[in-house]
Amino acid sequence: MFENIEWTHYIEYLKTENILALLSSMDPAELAQNPKVIIPAIICSAAMIFFRFYRTLALIVGIIVLWAGAIYGLPDPEQELSLSAALKFGAVCIAVAGFWIYMFLIRAD
Fold first, then answer.
1. What secondary structure, in 3-state letters, does 59-106 show?
2. What is the DSSP string of 25-64?
3. Which range, of 3-7, 70-74, 77-81, 87-91, averages the lowest pLDDT?
4. Helix, strand or coil for residue 13?
5. Residues 66 and 96 sit within 8 Å (Cβ to Cβ)
6. For 28-49, how does the pLDDT look when each residue is reduced to its tens digit (9 = 90+)?
7. What is the model's pLDDT at position 109?
8. Nearest-CA neighbor of 93 among 59, 62, 72?
């Protein structure tokens, strides 16, 4: 099924568009204040709650928390990583992992 796809085109697109650099330069607080982002996010979240897509919502919220934790908790690449910053980010990762374990493995719907 996937053997006929030209993967080099997609890889070159990802390299030229610098998507990872774009994501690392975004500020979650700026996105949270943008009405073009927050209104669709509220509508999608309400729809997921209404249709009981709790696991999907938990996955999306966990990814956003990890992204915000990486932006605010870890220093810039030029700076040295301190132990307190690593412990804070580790605590965030453990909390998100625990929440995902609860949502996907322990909680039975």
1. HHHHHHHHHHHHHHHCCCCCCCCCHHHHHHHHHHHHHHHHHHHHHHHH
2. H--HHHHHH-HHHHHHHHHHHHHHHHTT-HHHHHHHHHHH
3. 3-7
4. helix
5. yes
6. 888 889 899 899 999 999 999 9
7. 65
8. 62
Whether residue 27 contacts residue 71, with contact meaning beta carbons closer than 8 Å, is answered with yes
Question: Which are the contacts of 103, defined by CB distance < 8 A and separation ≥ 6?
Answer: 54, 55, 58
Residue with tokens 């990762």: 93
- Angle of helix 54-73 relative to helix 35-50, nearest 10 degrees, comes to 150
Length of the chain: 109
Q: Shortest CA distance to 57 belongs to which of 44, 39, 70, 67?
A: 44
pLDDT tens across 98-108, in order?
999 999 999 87
Q: For the purposes of burial, counting CB atoms within 10 Å of the CB of 41, is it exposed (0-12), middle (13-18) or buried (19 or more)?
A: middle
Q: Rounded to whole angstroms, how far apart are CA atoms 37 and 70? A: 20
Mean pLDDT score of the chain, rounded to an integer? 88
